[in-house]
Request: fold
Amino acid sequence: MLYRSLLRPILFRLPPETAHELALHSLELLKPKSINRFVHQHYSSDDFEDLHRFGLRFSNPVGLAAGFDKDGIALQSLAALGFGFIEAGTVTYHSQPGNPRPRLFRLPQDRALINRAGFNNAGAATFAEKVAKHRPQCILGVSIGKSKITPLEEATGDYLKSFELVYPIADYIAINVSSPNTPQLRELQQADQLSSLLNSLQTRNDELQQKFRRPTKMPLLVKLSPDLEQTELELIVDVLRRLNVDGIVATNTTTRRDNLLSHQTMVEAIGSGGLSGVPLRNRSTQIIGSLYELTEGKIPLIGVGGIFTPADAWEKIAAGASLIQLYTGFIYQGPRIAKEINQGLSKYVRDNGFRNLDEAVGHRAKELKG
Reply:
C-alpha cells in the first residue's frame, strides 16, 4: 500500500521513461536480501512444488515480462521481489538507441501504457557479458529481436547472431516477432517466414547444444501478437508444432485503441505504439484460449496482458496459460505484486478443488477463447 499511496503518485509526476529509469537504477543499487525482507512471501513453496515447464523447474508461475529490464542491469534485485522467472530484453544483435523520445506514455484512467521504444538496448554481446557476472536467482529467459538496421530479408542471420551470444547465459530464449515498434517485424509471423526463421534457429540450437555439451536443447519460445486473426493463429500453430517449438508467449502489445476511457484527443496525440495493461486483458485471454485449443494443450503458454490481480492471473491460467507474466501491472501495482499474485493463485487452486496448478491449466479454455 505504501507504493500505491505514496511512491506511485511521486513517480507518476515524472515523465514515464524517467520514472522507469529511476526505478530500475534504484533496484540495481539495492541488495537482494533487503528486498526479500520487504516482500516476504506468505504462500507455501509447496504450492508450486512440481512446476515444470519446457524442461525447466520454476519456483512459482509469476514472471516479469520482457521490456522492463532490457539490458539486464537489475536482474538479481528483480528476482528478489518474488518473481519465479524474468524475461530480459528484448535485445538485438546491433546496439540501438530506439525511437525518439517521448516513447512511453501512461493512460491512468485505463490503467494502461503505450510504448514505441523500438528495442532500445546496448546489444546482445554487452547484455550477455553483463548478465554472466550477475545472474538472478530464478529462471532467466532472454527475448531477442531483429535489429532495426537489418533488412527483413536478412532477419534470420541477425536473430542467429543474437541467439548465439545469449545462449550461454539463458535458461530459455524467446523469439520476438510481434513488437509493433520495429518496421516490418510482424511480417515474420507469416507462416512461411516464421517457418524459415525457426527452422534455422532450431538447427543452430542443435549445434550449440553439442558445442556447450548441454544435456537438453535450449527451450525456444515464440512471442505472438494479440492482433492476429484465427486463421493466422492456425497457420502459426501448425508451424510451431512441426518445428517442435517449446512454448508460446501470448501476447505482446496491441495497436488497437478500442473502448478506451482516456480522452480520444489525448490518445490520438500520443500516436503510434503498443498498448498494454487492462485494455489488453480480454483480448490476450481470448488468444490464450484459442492457442490452448489449437495446440491441444501440448505447447506451454505464457499468458501476459493486463494482469493486475490474482483474479486476472487465474483467468489466464483457466484459459490455458501454464505461466504468467507482468509488466504494466507491476508499474501500477508496485513491487509486492508477484507475492500478492502467487498468494492469490495458491488460494484459487485450493478453493476450486484442484490438487495443483497444472490441473487448473485450460479448464475454461473453450469458454474463454476468442
Summary: DSSP finds 15 helices and 13 strands in the chain. Residues 103 and 117 are 5 Å apart (CA to CA). The radius of gyration is 19 Å. Residues 191-212 form the longest helix (22 residues).
